[in-house]
Amino acid sequence: MDCLFCKIVAGEIPSKKLYEDDQVLAFYDVDPQAPVHFLVIPKEHIACASEITPENSQIIAHIFEVIANLVSTLKLADGYRIVNNCGVQGGQSVPHLHFHVLGGRDMSWPPG
Hints:
Elements (H helix, E strand, L loop, with lengths): L3 H6 L7 E4 L3 E5 L7 E7 L15 H16 L6 E4 L15 E5 L9
Antiparallel strand pairs: 1-2, 2-3, 3-5, 4-5
């Protein structure tokens, strides 16, 4: 498979890991848009939110549990933003489900 994030999961491409278990990987974004900016991805390839099914949806709950633990560890109590882009027009540049977690600065609204 020619998926950038699958290659990161497989260890073929290095990343600055923040958290890993048997289901998910969290790592810092290579082009951070905030003082704290990391991604959380399922290890299983799911292209985007449109591919969430009853068979794979439990991974989403686990991802949000991981995010809750990480933002606590990183002391983002003043707030943070979770972003999921889906599809090209939605701004998704890597076709593998992922959640950006941004914090450490005030966030504006509406975003881009």
